[in-house]
Amino acid sequence: MTKALVTGGAGFIGSHLAELLISEGCEVIVVDNLTSGRMSNLSSIAEHAGFTFIDADIRDIASLKPAFKDVDWVFHLAGLADIVPSIEMPGQYFSTNVTGTFNVLECARNAGAERIVYAASSSSYGIPEVYPTPETSPIQPQYPYALTKYMGEELTLHWAQVYGLDAISLRLFNVYGTRSRTSGAYGAVFGVFLAQKLSGRPFTVVGDGQQTRDFTYVTDVAQAFLAAAQSHVSGEAMNVGSGGTFSINRLVELLGGEVEFIPKRPGEPDCTFADINKINTLLGWRARISFEEGVGHMLEHITDWRDAPVWDPKSIDQATEAWFQYLGD
């Protein structure tokens, strides 16, 4: 039986990955510090056999090390996300996304883990020059979150090069789906819109809504992590995207509701669109869930956002003040 460890395994993507690994017959260890109201995700995983939970923070290598005993696969998804908090608290993002990744890599190396798969971010491309965006595109992060996630990727691939650790980095594009964050900082569009729909408020659409995103459903992303672990490829970074790009106006159309437009934000691309030829060629992976099907799944679970913050133009303006202050012209 393969023993798999998932850091951040009680989180959005991590919980789906943990369930997939269990269904594949793996013995799964979830390492998480249970921030951001993750207990419900953990409860969902705990319904399955072959699951162990360890409460640990990746910044604390002493508490982290015991979780790696006899581990075969390591999936490193733990980290801090969101743009504005990374601008306001760059030290926390560095300690978690960079030092924490170093700790995970060292624990994996010292434990003799067979493979590590790192969750990188497509935000590291910044405002891309080419669409669909290939892995060879320039790295030009616009804010500390993107920078620290790329630094984690560089560490991971360097450990593969120097120490012979089999490792793959997956650059994730606009992941959405059930169990996505329902609290905390202003951020992902789905959480914002679903809470607004539940409360009967208009959707706060940035700019003119014609900007597009490579929305990739979370179960497809989990399958990409599994494919990476099962492969013999190492030392590579690969995009994980849907194979398409979809406008915010199309999302609003699928969700159904009124619209309120708010100012466009600096440092955001008008389009995200992954070139997925590399991962399809090397791993045989391709997304299966259509955008329409994925949005349907979200609407079926819309009550999950009943306690989420309900944003309006005024509260968004206050929450994104640092964004405009530091990233504006």
Q: How would you sum up this structure in a few lines?
A:
This is UDP-glucose 4-epimerase. Strand 1 (3-7), helix 1 and strand 2 (27-32) form a beta-alpha-beta unit.
Descriptive account of the structure:
This protein is α/β, with parallel strands linked by helices. It folds into two domains: 3-175 and 216-240, NAD(P)-binding Rossmann-like Domain (Rossmann fold, 3-Layer(aba) Sandwich); 176-213 and 243-272 and 289-327, UDP-galactose 4-epimerase, domain 1, CATH 3.90.25. 41% of the residues lie in helices and 17% in strands. It has 13 helices and 13 strands. A seven-stranded parallel beta sheet has the order 3-2-1-4-5-6-11, sandwiched between helices. Strands 7-10 form a two-stranded parallel sheet. Strands 8-13 form a two-stranded parallel sheet. Helix 6 links the parallel strand 5 (115-121) and strand 6 (166-172). The longest helix is centred in the N-terminal third of the chain and has 22 residues, at 90-111. It is globular, with a radius of gyration of 19 Å. Pathway: Bacterial outer membrane biogenesis; LPS O-antigen biosynthesis. This is UDP-glucose 4-epimerase. Belongs to the NAD(P)-dependent epimerase/dehydratase family.
- Beta percentage is 15-25%
Poorly predicted segments: none
Reading side by side through the largest sheet, how are the strands ordered? Answer: 3-2-1-4-5-6-11
How many β-strand stretches?
13
Helix and strand run: EHEHEHEHHEHEEHEEEHEEHEHHHH
Pathway: Bacterial outer membrane biogenesis; LPS O-antigen biosynthesis
InterPro entries: Epimerase_deHydtase (IPR001509), NAD(P)-bd_dom_sf (IPR036291)
Protein name: UDP-glucose 4-epimerase
Pfam family, one: Epimerase
